[in-house]
Design goal:
alpha/beta; 23% strand; 16 helices
């Protein structure tokens, strides 16, 4: 790749001399290569220690987890406040900004840009004074094992660096689908880090996939579309301010993910959306904290992308320095409001409406033509010919499915308590173990009227979607069951995890699939006898059966469904079949 004037300006403005000798302190392999290459993970290990050695009172390098292949997961706590541990940060009330690179380790801009921004901030060359007012918690590479699956061809739709890591972990998890289910050891380590430090804002650095166009970055923030109302206002301001800083540096940032509504069709325009909690921006609003998704454009060269990511990190440091105390107050108030969510409506999902606006979007000239290879249409871009596209944008996002929060909380039966309790602990959710002896309790139960399993494995799970509703009944609650109160700061996260119709709840990820599998059957010849006995004994049932035969053609044609009609009415029918094994309660335990 050609070193552009942009690269030269970047090097001059940040004192990043690409000709720096290999022994130069706190420089990266990327920097010394003119941002053509990126280093392996041993460079991260070395730099982490070198930063701490150079700035022992401002930097602490520490391990917060181990990967499945035994590599250390490293973070740097950077501040001039003296708060180099989570305990000190909480005691001093210092805002924490967590900046994470390499969740997709082929998209590695954040690692190299982060080290440069960190060095310049410590030297007072960027975000002057910002480290006096916050802790920067920097995770250079989240997906460490994926980073070491190094290769030249790992990102064919991305310009540079020469070699890079792999998208998924050694266990083939996509960490950017794992925030709620937390299957991966890496995610469990990250959640423990988050629980300890309670970052005010969590920044997730990526490189987008997609088409060829001129804009170089997108900045998406939550809470903006969902979450606490006051935090939505602050989140929108954060997004606006960072985008303004980037524009001042020559970028053209967009507030939505720049992906065509219809794949490979520029004229289909763009559709903004609300991320579900499997993603970072959909997850942290459930904790009443800010999250930012940063996506540089994959077809910009690596020097350009590192510069833009660097500018973003510097902007964030300045924003937290300026607004951190105010945002801390807002998040504390949001936590207090979450304690009163009982009985209120909560949106489990969101949708983008079909209200459309027309925008001018800077693209390139292109042609779409028939492909003799695929048999479909394909798009060829001419990057030498900038072109303004007039395209539709749908960006109105509204709640879709709303549920009413329980008055007391949720009860997890003893049989499920161990593993659900472990999952709740991973997220720092409060719960109690019920100490009373077994009792009958007035609860709400959910029975699925319709179930739909995913047709193939996704992230190691067979997903499940259910329809149905809650109804009241008396059920046994055993000693050792869990009570998960709704009156806690993470009330939104509690409902997301335990409501059966949420897109990223435990049920949706297939964790309760056994409850929706029929395990006991009545042989057909026995069911035939049972059906005749019921028809003879119950004229009303005979009439109901005949009506269903007359009005439901599928039922009429299915011997199995006809026999099941009677099996469901027999005392041997499994009353737990399709019963979600988590209950809601109005009581406190």
């Amino acid at each position: 790749m050609i070193r552009s004037a942009i690269l030269l300006a970047f090097a001059a403005s940040t004192s990043l001399a690409s000709a720096a000798p290999a022994s130069a302190p706190l420089t990266t392999i990327s920097e010394r290569s003119g941002f053509q290459t990126t280093g392996r993970y041993d460079e991260v290990v070395a730099l982490c220690a070198q930063f701490q050695k150079a700035y022992p009172k401002q930097v602490r390098c520490f391990e917060f987890g181990r990967t499945p292949e035994g590599r250390p997961m490293l973070a740097l706590a950077v501040t001039r406040t003296g708060a180099l541990s989570a305990e000190q940060a909480k005691k001093k009330g210092v805002p924490v900004l967590l900046v994470q690179g390499g969740i997709h380790a082929g998209e590695i801009d954040g690692k190299d840009a982060g080290f440069l921004a960190l060095r310049d901030a410590l030297e007072g060359k960027a975000a002057a004074g910002a480290l006096d007012k916050q802790v920067l918690l920097f995770v250079p590479v989240f997906n460490v094992d994926g980073h070491e699956r190094f290769g030249k061809n790992n990102r064919p739709n991305q310009r540079g660096p020469v070699e890079m890591g792999w998208r998924t972990t050694a266990q083939n998890y996509n960490l950017n689908r794992d925030y709620v289910k937390a299957d991966a050891p890496e995610m469990q380590a990250m959640l423990a880090l988050v629980n300890a430090w309670d970052p005010l804002a969590y920044v997730d650095l990526h490189v987008t996939d997609g088409a060829k166009f001129q804009p170089d970055i997108s900045i998406q923030v939550e809470p903006v579309h969902g979450g606490d109302e006051a935090l939505k206002v602050a989140g929108a301001a954060l997004q606006t301010n960072v985008m303004a800083d980037l524009k001042a540096k020559g970028s053209d940032p967009k507030p939505y993910y720049i992906s065509f509504a219809k794949e490979d069709d520029p004229m289909s325009g763009f559709v903004d959306s609300m991320s579900t909690p499997r993603f970072s921006t959909g997850y942290f609003l459930l904790r009443n904290r800010f999250a930012m998704l940063v996506e540089t454009h994959s077809w910009k060269d690596y020097p350009t992308r590192v510069r833009i990511t660097y500018n973003t990190i510097v902007s964030l440091l300045s924003q937290v320095a300026q607004h951190g105390k105010e945002w801390q107050k807002l998040t504390k108030e949001a936590d207090a409001r979450a304690l009163t969510m009982a009985g209120s409506d909560f949106p489990l999902s969101y949708r983008t409406t079909f209200n459309t606006k027309t925008i001018e979007f800077p693209g390139y000239a292109y042609v779409r033509e028939h492909s003799e290879v695929s048999g479909g249409l394909w798009t060829r871009y001419d990057e030498s010919k900038p072109q303004m596209w007039t395209v539709p944008l749908r960006d109105e996002i509204v709640p879709e499915l709303k549920v009413t929060a329980p008055l007391g909380g949720y009860i997890v039966p003893l049989a499920q308590a161990a593993w659900v309790g472990a999952k709740l602990k991973q997220h720092g959710v409060d719960f109690k173990v019920i100490k009373q002896d077994e009792m009958l309790a007035e609860v709400e139960t959910f029975r699925a009227s319709k179930t739909k399993l995913g047709t193939q494995s996704f992230e190691g799970h067979q997903t499940l979607a259910v329809e149905g509703d809650w109804s009241r009944e008396r059920r046994a609650v055993a000693k050792g069951a869990l009570f998960v109160p709704i009156a806690q700061p993470k009330a939104r996260l509690v409902m997301t995890m335990l409501e059966p119709r949420g897109a990223d709840g435990l049920l949706a990820w297939g964790e309760f699939n056994n409850a929706f599998e029929r395990k006991e059957y009545m042989e057909d010849y026995v069911a035939e006898e049972v059906a005749r006995d019921q028809l003879e004994a119950n004229p009303a049932l005979r009439a109901e059966f005949q009506k269903k035969l007359d009005t439901d053609a599928e039922f009429n044609k299915s011997p199995a469904k006809r026999l099941e009609f009677f099996a469901k009415r027999h005392a041997s029918w499994d009353e737990r079949y399709n019963l979600y094994p988590v209950m809601r309660t109005a009581q406190q335990y």
